[in-house]
Structure formats: C-alpha cells, structure tokens
C-alpha cells in the first residue's frame, strides 16, 4: 500500500495504482499536499471528503487590514480535519487487514513539509519554549502564514514522531515486530525557506553546507533508521554511503525475492545493503551519482571520500568544485586546482555513467521539455 502525493489527475501514469500498488490513500497532487486541512483525500480513485469547509490553502495571505502582530489574524489557517490523522489511521487499518500475510506499506508522510499547519493541541507544548520568533506573514511569498513558525515546525516534527510511534505500537500489538523490516528516512535536507523554517536556529544540518535544492551534503545527506529485531543488531551505526536506489535490491534480498548479489537486474544502479545492515561489513559503492535540473542545473559524483560538484550548468556559468569529505565534511575548501588528476578522473566517470533524460533534461547535455527547470 502507498500513502503519498502524486500528479494531479487520478488514473495518470504516476497514479500509484498504475505503478504496482494495490491500494492508495492520501494526496495525489503535490500542490494539494501543501495543505494539511484539505477538503478531500483520495482512496484509490475515489475522493474522500474531509470536514474542512472551507479547506485551508497551502498558499494564502493574511486577511486585508489584519494586524500581523495579533494571533487572532491567523485563526483562518486552523482547520478541523487534519489530513495526517486520516492517513495514519488508514495505515493502521491496512496493517490490521494484512496481518496474516506478507505486505509492503509505503508511508511517506508530508510532515513536516510546509505549509505550517498543525493542531493547536500539538502546538501548545512548544509555545512554552519562549522562543519569541517573528511571525511568518507571507508578505514576500511562501506558504500559509503562521504566528509562531518555530513552534509550528517543531510541533510538526513531533507529530511525525508520534505517527511513526503509532505504527510501531500497532506492529507490537499485532505481534508483527519480530518479522517486519522498518525503514525510516528523509527525502532531502531542510528547506531553504528561512522565514518559515529557521534552519540556523534549529541547527538543522549541523556543520554541513547547503539546504534543500542543493547537491552539497546539507541538501542530500539524511539519516536513516532501520529496525528488524533478530536480523539487524540493535544499537549499531554505520557511515556507509548509500542512496534510495539501494532499497529495492535490499528489500528483494531480505524477502528472498532474489539474491541480488548474484543477479542485480532487479536493482538497477542500486546495491543491496543487507551485508552492512546485518554485519556492518560491506565493500563501499564504486560511486554515487546525483543530478538535478533545478536550481540552475547541478550534478555531483561521490567516490570514496572525494566529491565532484558542478553547478549552474543550465545558466552557462558552470562552476566545478572538488571536495574531500573525509577531511572537509562541510565542503568549505575547493580542491579542484590542487588535485587536477582527481578532477579529471571523476569528470570522466560522469561522462561514462550518466544517461540522457528527455523528461528531466540536464542542460546543456540533454534536449527535452522544461520540466525541472
């Protein structure tokens, strides 16, 4: 089962039911998913009405003439029927309905993505922190205004923690914990929308450089927590470099669908993480490649401690950088001039491994539409 946000029209190529899932509950429109108080969600291809009349928009402005210093001016951005509650409940129902057979539950929560929508009861504990952050008024654009954005962001993260806890508790209640692999991770670094989410205040990426939209480590390096009692030793840690493409072959090997170390066709560019998860021993990946047509056009290549970063590709003002993450995890010192041989090696490898894309062209290399630009 899948819970996610997808393209706007049900029945499209991206519809989860057209991508191998048996059931779906949640959003299927990225814009729609910016509201946590929408007027409906999707169950498979049927709209399920929510008790938000009217719906709280993901993008909004304060009412004309309102005082941004008055918390009452933000009352219009509180709804009744919180979508994450509905989605979490549907996930619990799915676990109960499938407890007697193997299942795959994909639960990509929209929390804590903006807009900053969270029930007042969840906000209250964080208001006591006394942070006195300035209100987010959306005067210069962005998502829905909020009177206490720092408290709202913290409360949304706590809500995510709580939702994950509910699912884990349900696995315990159903006596499925010992036979269930649980993977928790994030899709990117903290947002760059600093008026809504104060990454500096929260020290969101620590010493790393970059935020969401960047191929610096702060934009792409995220923690991953994996649990399977009896199969994965508790309390162990690893800094093994991996990507989301590694989870398909990992799940295939864990479930016995295929021994991907003998036949890796199911994994594409991914590698099974079973060895590092179970024994903490695994040969490092030969490389980890990323490209992003957005934000000016970027690509990066990681090989061992070395990382190549090329930016502004679609702007005609390319910059090329080389970092040693072992000695410089914050990517502060560009070593391109000092290590031309390593720069050449990684640049050549990029040419060998990347494939053209018509849907998401990386200019100037590819030709195609404007998606991702």
Summary of the model, kept short:
By secondary structure, the protein is α+β, with helices and mostly antiparallel strands.
Instruction: Give the helix/strand class.
Output: alpha+beta
From the 3D coordinates, which CATH architecture of the domain at 288-353 would you assign? 2-Layer Sandwich
The value of Rg in angstroms is 22 Å
**Strand order, sheet with most strands:** 6-7-8-9
Note the beta-strand portion.
Answer: 5-15%
CA-to-CA gap between the ends?
31 Å
What is the N-to-C order of secondary-structure elements (H for helix, E for strand)? EEEHHHEHHEHHEEEEH
Overall morphology: globular
- Write down the CATH topology of the domain at 288-353: Arylsulfatase, C-terminal domain
pLDDT averaged residue by residue? 92
What's the total number of strands?
9
Q: What is the name of the CATH class of the domain at 288-353?
A: Alpha Beta
Low-confidence stretches: 1-7, 369-373
The tally of helices reads 8
Q: Biggest sheet, in brief?
A: 4 strands, antiparallel
Estimate the helix proportion, in percent.
10-25%
Domain Sulfatase N-terminal: 13-256
Pfam families: Sulfatase
Protein name: Sulfatase N-terminal domain-containing protein
Keywords: Hydrolase
């Amino acid at each position: 089962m899948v819970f996610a946000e997808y393209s706007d029209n049900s029945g499209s190529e991206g519809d989860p039911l057209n991508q191998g899932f048996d059931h779906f509950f949640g959003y299927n429109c990225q814009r729609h998913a910016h509201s946590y108080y929408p007027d409906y969600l999707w169950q498979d291809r049927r709209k399920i009405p929510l008790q938000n009349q009217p719906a709280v928009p993901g993008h909004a402005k304060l009412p004309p003439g309102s005082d941004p210093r008055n918390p009452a001016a933000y009352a219009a951005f509180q709804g009744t029927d919180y979508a994450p509650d509905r989605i979490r409940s549907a996930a619990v129902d799915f676990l109960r309905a499938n407890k007697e057979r193997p299942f795959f539950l994909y639960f990509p929560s929209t929390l804590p993505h903006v807009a900053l929508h969270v029930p007042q009861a969840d906000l209250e504990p964080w208001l006591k922190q006394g942070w006195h952050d300035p209100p987010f008024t959306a005067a210069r654009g962005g998502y829905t205004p909020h009177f206490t954005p720092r408290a709202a962001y913290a409360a949304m993260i706590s809500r995510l923690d709580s939702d994950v806890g509910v699912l884990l508790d349900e696995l315990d209640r159903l006596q499925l914990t010992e036979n269930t692999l649980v993977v928790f991770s994030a899709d990117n670094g903290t947002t760059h929308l600093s008026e809504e989410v104060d990454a500096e205040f929260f020290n969101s990426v620590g010493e790393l450089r970059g935020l969401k939209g960047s191929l610096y480590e702060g934009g792409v390096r995220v923690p991953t927590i994996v649990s399977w009692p009896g199969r994965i030793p508790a309390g162990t840690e690893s800094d093994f470099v991996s990507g989301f493409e590694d989870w398909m072959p990992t799940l295939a090997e864990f479930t016995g669908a295929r021994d991907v170390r003998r036949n890796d066709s199911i994994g594409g560019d991914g590698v099974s993480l079973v060895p590092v998860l179970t024994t903490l021993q695994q040969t490092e990946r030969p490389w980890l490649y990323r490209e992003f047509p957005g934000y000016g056009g970027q690509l990066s290549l990681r090989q061992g401690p070395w990382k190549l970063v090329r930016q502004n590709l679609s702007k005609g003002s390319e910059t090329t950088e080389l970092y040693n993450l072992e000695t410089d995890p914050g990517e502060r010192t560009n070593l391109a001039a000092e290590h031309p041989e390593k720069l050449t090696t990684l640049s050549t490898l990029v040419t060998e491994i990347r494939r053209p894309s018509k849907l998401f062209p990386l200019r100037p290399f590819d030709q195609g539409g404007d998606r991702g630009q």
